[in-house]
Amino acid sequence: MVKTSFAFLICVLSCFLLTIQLIAFKLLIKQAKIEEPTAWKLLDQITVAAQQYKIPLFVIDQLLLNYIQQGDYLLNAESLPKNYPLKNVNHHHFSSKRKFYSNFVSYHQSSNSLLSKSRVCKLFCRGESRLTHLGTLADSISPETVDHFSNYLKDHYGLSVITLKDIDSSLLHLNIHVSIPTHIVIVDEKIDIRKQSHVVHIVIFYDRVQGDNWWQAPIKFNENHERILHRQGLKRTEFRLPYSSAIYDKTEILRTTIDGLKIFLPHPPKSFLTPSNDKRFIECDRRQSIEFYNENPKDETPEANNFRTKAQTLLTKARQLIEHELGLPFWLSSGTLLGFYRQCDFIVYSGDVDIGMWADDFKPEIVDLFSINNIPLIHWFGRPNDSLELSFLMDDLKLDIFFFYREQDHYWNGGTQAKTGLKFKYNFPKFTLCWTDFIGLLVRIPCETESYIEANYGKQQWRIPRRDWDWKSSPPNVRPNGQWDPSEWSETIRLIPMPNV
Fold it and tell me: What are phi and psi for residue 331, nearest 5 degrees?
């Protein structure tokens, strides 16, 4: 009887302890779910799936990259050991010897379960945005891989995946229509918006401009996509990337672990930190070029091809000196811009290369820098505050730099007739600047290219080649602008004699 009572007591006590353990276990699970931030959980699922399909995902989000630069959230992180055996993954180089990351980049052998152990999420859980931007590379993720990756996220985690596709614009001039994946947007629609839902946007980057840059396709959401994002509380204005096509400097991506997530970082990150408007990209319309050359056969004579070679060399040199060494923006203008827009080529009978700059960017160092690089100044017209125009000569090819003045409702540049001192003014509608690929060079053009061209050459007249173009009377936007006083000519009309060679 005593043994039976004792056994019964043991059973009751065991059941009681087991019940306590189950309750405690449930409380721990509930606490873990509460502590596991939505943003981290979604990124954890995505990065695990990316590892499954060997897709390198790297951070391109401006907010996150700015915090990474500050380095104040991973002070105890360690750099990769100097003898750590790094390998190339999918042909992309990952390096540890970079000062930029020396204070906070670390790599851990553990899986993406670090957060569940340490409960520390310092970067991805800041909660300042409902959106995280990541990037990957087209040569690491085929269209088939995109489908498998998306299906994995749907089947294993119940996530909603929006895959955007577009026509490869680089092949349109060959009349080849190939659909390519461009963006992946991932949301967990099971999360209540009141619990801080999150959206992850992955950009698929493609090589452009002779493989030296990465290209982002435009973001084109349909009404259903917009509704999904709206239900997540995400506004269109919260996208910290341009909706238009964009261009970025190609860079290395480094492998690391942040907040327990295996992820990659761009080095250097400068291109991803510039304002969105500074990255907009416009393709040359090659179908329009083909139509033009069907009506006006392309000049392929030795003289024409020689001009193309010299003009490309001169534009390349100008880009190096102005853009890279002086850090000043310029853009294709006048006949060079017309050639780009109409025929994706130089106008071989134009005889020069034309570019534009902002007048308030003028520096005397421009003249000195061109001179020491064997591109001497041959003409100086106007003053920095009025109708400035500079001409340089490389071999026998002239480079004209037109300086533009910004008024409240329009922009303008000036011209001067050397023998009379007469001044001319060319008015343009206000414009912004975009990037393009012109003859294999990444250069700027007015984003509003057509209105710029129409102002300078007429609404339909720009389509017709003209060899009798007169810069003083032919442009529709030219206006008389007074005359330089003869006492000013020594300052405003400088014709520099060239030494006999």
Answer: -145, 160
Q: Are 333 and 355 in contact (CB under 8 A)?
A: yes
User: Are 212 and 326 in a shared domain?
Assistant: no
DSSP, res 432? -
Tell me the residue range of the domain where 400 lies.
286-495
389 near 381, Cβ under 8 Å?
Answer: yes
Is 94 a domain residue? yes
User: From CA 104, how far away is CA 89, in angstroms rounded?
Assistant: 22
Tens digits of per-residue pLDDT, 470-492? 999 999 999 999 999 999 999 99
In degrees rounded to 5, what are phi and psi of residue 497?
-70, 140
Q: What is the pLDDT of residues 383-441, one digit of tens each?
A: 999 999 999 999 999 999 999 999 999 999 999 999 999 999 999 999 999 999 999 99
Query: In terms of domains, do 418 and 327 share one?
Result: yes
Give a yes or no: residue 28 inside a domain: no
pLDDT tier at 99, thresholds 50, 70, 90: very low
* Spatial contact of 452 and 468, defined as CB atoms under 8 Å apart: no
Total count of domains within the chain: 2
Judge if pTM exceeds 0.90: no
Contact 247/209 with Cβ under 8 angstroms? yes
Same domain for 354 and 328, yes or no, is: yes
249 and 290 both lie in a single domain: no
